[in-house]
């Protein structure tokens, strides 16, 4: 991949969140959280600012508790690499309402742009495929993003995508850092009390 | 939170069977736990088996214990209760991930079977076994120890109440005096 071919992360995220309806969203710490916030805050967004490696598992638990609603996890390549075992765990159950979208710039953007493992050719989508995700693809163009956007709202198979994005750093759009507030409004939106 | 093995049963407490492993599962069911997530341990074998056989319980095997903290946070966002079953060696794997509970205050109930606790044959179990309770306390997890069968039900009931009614992180440590020593030469 050359950088000039790669996708713009904010365009990708905005496209995937079009017509989101009842979509529930979990974001991995760092840029994925800023990207989702840049599209607009939403009660059904659960933002992480830490707990690195947990985004996929939070989405998995949510998908199992709410099997009739779609769940989309946005995270980065570094965050997904820290939770690789979770792909095997999810692969046992394969919830059809779960989609994981890895925004893969092949670098650790928060910490000084050190290369991540995907820079050396590690294929997260192939790992997900080997773990039993029914649909697992690397996406390099906007047509692929459109196909994924449609698949998020189908609930027939667990989906995973590695979306190759530019390393450009977009302006930071800060999401709420109060985890209790974000948790309570998310639950309230689903009709659950705070305690 | 100190070691508390003398907790009184509340008046509305359910009847417990004499088998403590059965009590673990029965108590979880009485709290409407829908998700049992675990890294296997012999001490939890019966609760895991019953979870897998119960059509109303989703049981999830984890590759490493910290996955369970994320999973249970997600299940709670979706309106359902769960519990994390593990061995004491897994406590160390959870440390950073416990920040997720500190920051969001979702109910977290952990049941930890102890190794390296008493009459341990394998020295490799001792460092984490001896540090497990202190490590949990350092991360803000409340802990209680069950060293005899009659403590198991009441302590899990007490811990589950503080998890699900007060949004705490709570761990019940099931000691080697309760579990018995592992047989090495079969």
Features:
heterodimer; A: 195 residues; alpha/beta; Rossmann fold; six-stranded parallel β-sheet; two-stranded antiparallel ribbon; 8 strands; 37% helix; 18% strand; globular; B: 186 residues; 6 strands; 39% helix; disordered N terminus
CATH architecture classification of chain A? 3-Layer(aba) Sandwich
Annotated CATH homologous superfamily of chain B = Thiamin diphosphate (ThDP)-binding fold, Pyr/PP domains
Strand content of chain B: 15-25%
Oligomerization status of the protein chains: heterodimer
Corresponding CATH architecture of chain B:
3-Layer(aba) Sandwich
For the termini of chain B, the CA-CA separation is: 39 Å
Helix count of chain A equals: 8
Structural class of chain B: alpha/beta
* Radius of gyration of chain A over all CA atoms, rounded: 15 Å
Query: For the largest beta sheet of chain B, what order do the strands appear in spatially?
Result: 2-1-3-4-6-5
Name of the CATH first level of chain A: Alpha Beta
The CATH superfamily of chain A turns out to be Thiamin diphosphate (ThDP)-binding fold, Pyr/PP domains
**What is the fold-level CATH name, i.e. the topology of chain A?**
Rossmann fold
Total number of distinct structural domains of chain A: 1
* Helix share bin of chain A: 25-40%
Describe the secondary-structure layout.
The complex is a heterodimer of chains A (195) and B (186).
Chain A: H1 9-16, E1 24-27, H2 31-39, E2 45-47, H3 55-65, E3 71-76, H4 77-82, H5 84-93, E4 98-104, E5 107-108, E6 114-115, H6 124-130, E7 135-139, H7 142-152, E8 159-164, H8 179-189
Parallel strand pairs in A: 1-2, 1-3, 3-4, 4-8, 7-8
Antiparallel strand pairs in A: 5-6
Helix pairs in contact in A: 1-2
Chain B: H1 20-30, E1 33-38, H2 45-53, E2 58-61, H3 66-77, E3 81-87, H4 99-104, E4 108-113, H5 126-138, E5 142-146, H6 149-166, E6 169-174, H7 176-179
Parallel strand pairs in B: 1-2, 1-3, 3-4, 4-6, 5-6
Helix pairs in contact in B: 1-2, 1-6
